[in-house]
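Spend some time on the protein that follows and explain the fold to me:
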Amino acid sequence: MDRGARPHQPFRLQAGKRKGEWYEIRLPDTMAAVPLGGVLRHLPLPAKLCGKLLQEGGVVRQGRQLRLRLFPREQPGFASDWMDLNVLYEDDFALVVNKPVGIEVHPSVQGQRRTLANAVAAYYEATGQACRVRHIHRLDKETTGPVLYAKNELAHYVFDKAMREKKIERVYLAVAEGVISANKGTIDKPIGQDRHHPTRRRVSPTGERAVTRFEVVERFPEHTLVRLRLETGRTHQIRVHLSYVGHPLAGDGLYGGTRRHIRRQALHGEKLIWFHPWTGERMEVRAPLPDDMAALLNELRRTRV
């Protein structure tokens, strides 16, 4: 059985309590006589991690108390660069940071500094957390919004699996140029690299499948505010798809948008939805609209008067 996939459980998995490097849970009466191997099969532990814990003495059972060494001390993996972080959510397993405009999620070339990864490393250091920096998804440098981090190996496995299975939902707000007539729709077009440009992507029959769902939130004389949900996570997906249908993002010079109203692509991660890696509880955070997009929308609303 794949321990990464949660089986039918004879009990409801409750949140435990962290004690240093250990996570302590209290088993229900129904599990008191169940052998340790049987208990572990009903926990959200991937087989590889479960085997590692058993081999290294990272599982201790005393009656109905079960202790798991889920939080060993780790090196961050990135140099620390201090900057103010807008932390939207944090617990023992996950960190969600609201990425500002103009910052890359992680270094794109060797030796690069001042990325979000460097800032998160500094945050862990300042708050006394010996965690490796593990981002689960990325945002473009000029896109704002929530970025999810796994704070231990278990969370990393669960979140990566959830991303592959499309169980982590990312919802975006964007200002597109032109008036989109349909109230909602789906853009299902493959995306590949543009052979004429080193960083640009394009719709291509030989590209990877990409699916973007959109709904109109508000219309203006020459622009449309849309909410978008991604079923896939291709590079520049929203920017490429909206440009392909004739509605490039305001400010997105790479894909045909103009910078008359805003100096970067008007794209913001509005909401992130995931499931807690231990309890399976549905989690959700919203990121406030950044100042430049709020100013853009205020300007557009004045044009309707």
About this structure: The radius of gyration is 22 Å. Residues 220 and 300 are 6 Å apart (CA to CA). Residues 153-164 form the longest helix (12 residues). Residues 1-10 have pLDDT under 50 and may be disordered.
